[in-house]
Amino acid sequence: MALRSDYEGQTCSLARSLEVVGERWTLLIIRDLFFGVRRFTPLQENLDIPRAVLSARLTALVGRGLVERRPYRPGRDEFVLTECGLELWPVVVSLMGWGDRHFAGAGAGAPRVFSHVACGTDLTPSGHCPACATDPPPEQVEMRPARPGAPGREDAVSRALRRRHRLLEPVAT
Q1: Any idea where the domains of the chain sit in the sequence?
Q2: What is the CATH number that goes with domain 13-84?
Q3: 11-25 pLDDT per residue, tens
Q4: pTM value?
Q5: Residue 85 has pLDDT above 60, yes or no
Q6: CA–CA separation, 71 vs 41, rounded Å?
Q7: How far is CA 155 from CA 42, 92, 149, 161, 173, in A?
């Protein structure tokens, strides 16, 4: 029996959610939007994703209400997470923490550290601030490299993300 390609008709919320964010590139695009990468070309270059695939995924995310297109000059749009998309922050930060623990490689650990802007405390891998006993929303989170000076990709976005940066603020490339 062939596997179905969708979950239409199922009553499982996880299955329906996977229809929206379960494709290979989607959560990486959302991650980069949290990191402040808002424009098409920097997204494409940082993710090393085919342009047609990125275009299709962004169109789907806009259509599902997770991302909004905002013109920044005539004929040019940037992409910003909506309230619906912002609600994915706990999922994204938890998956990154899980991946850091289980798949980063021996001794590699997390490439980025997230901290609570209000108190300066580093967050747990699940995004919790132990000092304030809260899970700060992404607009109250700052990130920095865990290992400054570590080798990495040399595209403009990767270089920009090696500096301390508040989530959701546009990355200067």
Answers
A1: 13-84, 89-166
A2: 1.10.10.10
A3: 888 888 888 899 989
A4: 0.90
A5: yes
A6: 14
A7: 9, 23, 15, 10, 9
